[in-house]
Amino acid sequence: MDEMDFQSSPQLSMGVELELQVLNTRDYNLTRGAPDLLRLLARTPYKDTVKPEIAESMIEINSSIHTRHDELVQELRGIRDEIARQCGKLNLAVAGGGTHAFHQWSEQRIFDMPRFHQLSELYGYLAKQFVVFGQHVHLGCPNGDDAVYLLHMLSRHIPQFIVLSGASPFSQGEDTAFHTSRLNAINAFPLSGHMPFVQSWAEFTAFFERMKSFGVIGSMKDFYWDIRPKPGYGTVELRICDTPLTVEKAAALAAFAQCLARYYLTERPQQPSPDVYELYAYNRFQACRFGAQGNFINPYTGVHSELGADIAQTLAQMRPQAERLQCQPALLALQAEVQGGQADSQWLREVLQREQAMSDVVRLQAERWMQPQPG
Description:
This protein has helices at 34-41, 69-90, 114-123, 125-129, 144-155, 158-165, 182-187, 201-214, 247-267, 275-278, 280-290, 307-317, 319-325, 328-340, 344-355, 358-370; strands at 14-24, 50-52, 58-62, 92-95, 134-140, 170-171, 174-175, 192-193, 224-225, 227-230, 235-242, 295-297, 304-306.
């Protein structure tokens, strides 16, 4: 099978990947605990669900394929609970959040796997600065042309997902003044950003083969785009989100993405516009820096608005989709966060103001991740 053969997936299916921080329970710094934690998890039913990441202070959760939000939440809670149990045996903790608040990148150690060593050799110190933590959402598509269409339409919503997931205000022990600083690390990679404005799977395949012939890439994994197609899975992979502070928030973000996918793939309200990418960097920066207070320029209308207002309008527009997909509580929870100004980044800043110590911020964010939430 050719790498670029798009494998059909059930439309509106979704899956989630979550990168998590592995912490010691002394000062809550990142620690090289992933190998031991993975060895214990290998003896549980979740042995194929939790995997290594580029550094020994990271793990990655991979959910099953779902069509229902409530089933995704249930699975993520089960994985979380098992990880928490195994962490207790090792004096470790895990946490969400897009960055660790005070770790030093030079202290990180690359996980002993060939691909991770290759990345380290290629990118040098950037590989260790890539110790940041994101959520990926896979959305099933029946064919490659639909994937290209959906990817371009979702690009208009990238600033919304940045605002809704922002959970990385701190880096290297400093308040960055950003709603999410994680994406600044990703921006350093030469193949980050967005997919070119191709309009069919055949056109994208030609672009891919051209880049491969130049020796720029070896596979789809070499593109660190905010959204990319994943032909082997038959999905569009949304990669922009910080890892939220709870699994419930992670599932809500996936449900929002699923609603958007249903809207665009079933109603086809408009065709993609290259204007999305002319304004892409500006809108993306506004979301990263200012969150819900950032300025957003709608690439289809040219209208300026605050990102919080744009998100509220989109969430209201998605209510019929949420009703059909039975995920109304997830969208209501996101709407309440935006209206109440209670983003994860704001929660982290409030904890620092109260506790006055970065180590206590990370301790409390680990507790928030590992302990069951109400509802």
